[in-house]
Design brief:
Blueprint (H helix, E strand, L loop, with lengths): L2 H10 L5 H8 L5 H8 L10 E4 L9 H17 L2 H6 L1 E5 L5 H14 L4 E4 L5 H11 L3 E5 L8 E7 L8 H12 L12 H7 E4 L1 H12 L5 H7 L5 E4 L6 H11 L3 E3 L25 H10 L3 E5 L6 E6 L5 E3 L2 H18 L7 E6 L5 H9 L2 E5 L3 H14 L3 E7 L3 E3 L9 H17 L4 H12 L1 E10 L5 H14 L4 E2 L2 E8 L4 E4 L5 E3 L8 E5 L4 E6 L5 E10 L2 H19 L2
Parallel strand pairs: 2-3, 2-4, 3-6, 7-8, 7-9, 12-13, 12-14
Antiparallel strand pairs: 1-5, 4-5, 9-10, 10-11, 14-15, 16-23, 17-18, 18-19, 18-21, 19-20, 21-22, 22-23
Helix pairs in contact: 1-3, 4-6, 4-8, 6-9, 11-17, 12-17, 14-15, 14-18
Length: 573
């Protein structure tokens, strides 16, 4: 059946809701729009589904959500009655239709005789991950598109360990989903089934989460001394972080000044271009607040509150938005410092980061005698390491982070947690004030001690129905003819993560990387810098990561400009 036929079949189906019918009738003369909406099916991968909100097989809507949930239901039923009884935890953020999609998913599960636990209002990713673990659920669903623009929403599936579902189980779920050809035919629950299988998670449950976070504090004396005087500005950027972040800060003795214009849920995210705290522009209103009250630090979280953006005063007294890598190394250094000072650093301590995250982590971990592990992009791989070590006891998980402002201390959750990161960053500010310095000063000391590294990434957008395939084709082409240099830096080795191989260009020797497979090319440069090219798994963007080692910021900026130009020329953009 062609996309026009599929479009017409939806439009003529009496089960189609009135909103969908009106929206689809409005595009009857727009062949390009019809092709985008019905020329493909919204891909369900290891990061779940993510797409533009609208009606069609290639869009995020109640029908694609219900179909995906029916596939998940079939998987759970295949595991037996115990899995159905353990049930599924569901949460959602403040995006357009998030609550509607969460409710639709809950109803499909109930119609299949599967118990459901759904939060009473929007809750962040880490609290969903915590709920899966605390409730002993067999799976979890999070309705969110994270930091994407307002037009998007998404559907993430979590496994029983609280991490995003493994690639192996995801493949099985996808198999069930693909067998469902009738998008409008998923089962509806009876009132009796809703009453029997659906349970609401109330604020009483939230208290358990906060209690588990409070156990992870590292500097109680410093917070007691400096916390009440600390001027901290926080913006939830219209997302789900407002109550959790302000609650945990208050519990440890810190009162945040909240950005009023961005406090309340707003699916339009009307005060920002994109709700991504990685960008200084997203924190701009918070920074203005901070200037007015002479604050020390600014925090911002994204709609599902798994990412934390931070801005601090530099030596000129101006607010500087730190990168995810900079916050990561500050937290890593702080956590290891405090554990060592308190003689609580385990002998088998281990840290995990994605392989595109700053190379500085290696030097810091080496200094503290802590083993560092690298995994592919995606916090589920950090979660897998935690799960592995809990079984074999070979290492004790201390901290995990990604360059995209994602951090996790503790094992209460298995995904990025901006709530615990906010707590740790706040007490870190207090700790350094207690010993007579600023966070920015400590960052400069880290550079002086371990060498300057400039980390950044650029995103190249792709458009159209075949955007994801086109991006992957670009990466595939790089593997066929590996680059030998990027301007002034020669390539030492190339890692092809799709084949789990590292190729030494000087000797031709091939060795296994020992990593889950992913479509990515990573260039090790001779001076310890690296360039990595990978397609985003959640949006149509090709991402290029640069980590530049240099003597100072000026040298690094100059080298980065040359490396970026060479990389763009190689890719052809």
């Amino acid at each position: 059946m062609g996309y026009i036929d599929t479009y017409n079949s939806w439009l003529e189906d009496k089960r189609l809701n009135a909103e969908a019918k009106s929206e689809l009738e409005a595009i009857k003369d727009n062949k390009e729009d019809i092709e985008y909406r019905f020329g493909a099916e919204l891909e369900f991968g290891t990061a779940g589904m993510r797409g533009i909100i609208g009606y069609g097989t290639n869009m995020m809507n109640v029908y694609t959500v219900r179909r995906a949930t029916q596939g998940l239901s079939e998987f759970i039923k295949s595991l037996g009655e115990d899995a159905k009884d353990r049930g599924v935890a569901i949460s959602y953020d403040t995006r357009l239709k998030s609550k509607e999609f969460a409710t639709a998913a809950a109803h499909v599960l109930a119609a299949n005789g599967i118990h459901v636990y759904i939060f009473d209002k929007e809750h962040p990713v880490p609290m969903l991950s915590y709920a899966v673990r605390e409730l002993g659920a067999v799976a979890g669903i999070m309705i969110t598109a994270s930091h994407n623009p307002k037009q998007y929403n998404g559907y993430k599936v979590y496994g029983e360990d609280g991490a995003q579902m493994s690639p192996e189980d995801t493949d099985i779920v996808v198999g069930y989903i693909q067998k469902i050809t009738d998008y409008l035919g998923t089962p509806e629950p009876t009132d009796e089934q809703i009453s029997k299988y659906l349970r609401i998670l109330t604020p009483k449950f939230d208290k358990k989460y906060y209690k588990s976070l409070k156990k992870l504090t590292l500097s109680k004396k410093a917070v007691k001394k400096c916390g009440k005087k600390l001027k901290l500005v926080y913006t939830p950027v219209h997302g789900s972080g407002y109550i959790p972040v302000t609650t945990i800060l208050k519990m440890i003795g810190i009162n945040a000044t909240v950005v009023e214009e961005q406090k309340n849920p707003d699916p339009e995210f009307s005060t920002v271009e994109v709700p991504n705290p990685e960008f200084k522009e997203t924190l701009s209103i918070g920074i203005e607040y901070a200037r007015r009250i002479d604050a020390t630090v600014v925090f911002g979280t994204d709609p599902d509150s798994d990412r934390l953006g931070v801005a601090v005063k530099n030596k000129e007294g101006e607010f500087e938005a730190l990168s995810g890598n900079q916050v990561g190394i500050l937290l890593l250094d702080y956590i290891l410092t405090r554990l060592k000072e308190e003689k609580n650093l385990p002998e088998n301590a281990a840290v995990v980061k994605s392989f595109v995250t700053t190379g500085m982590a290696k030097a810091i971990c080496a200094h503290f005698g802590v083993e560092l592990f690298e995994v592919p992009v995606g916090f589920k791989f950090i979660g897998e390491k935690i799960k592995e070590w809990e079984k074999d006891l070979s290492h004790t998980y201390i901290f995990g982070f990604e360059e995209s402002c994602g951090y996790l201390r503790g094992t209460h959750a298995r995904d990025k947690d901006a709530v615990v990161a906010s707590m740790l960053c706040a007490e870190m500010v207090c700790y350094y004030e207690w010993i007579g310095k600023t966070v920015y000063q400590r960052l400069q000391e880290i550079y002086a001690e371990y060498g300057y590294v400039l980390d950044c990434n650029i995103s190249i957008p792709f458009k159209g129905l075949h955007a994801m395939a086109d991006m992957n084709a670009v990466v595939d082409k790089l593997k066929d003819d590996p680059a030998k240099s990027f301007d002034l830096y020669k390539v030492k080795a190339v890692r092809d993560y799709s084949k789990n191989l590292r190729i030494d260009l000087a000797t031709g020797e091939k060795t296994e990387i020992g990593s889950p497979l992913t479509n990515c090319v990573y260039y090790e440069l001779e001076n310890g810098s690296f360039i990595c090219v990978r397609p985003s798994g959640t949006e149509p963007k090709l991402k290029i990561y640069f980590s530049v080692k240099a003597n100072n910021r000026q040298d690094a900026d100059e080298a980065l400009a040359k490396m970026q130009a060479a990389a763009k020329k190689l890719i052809g953009v």
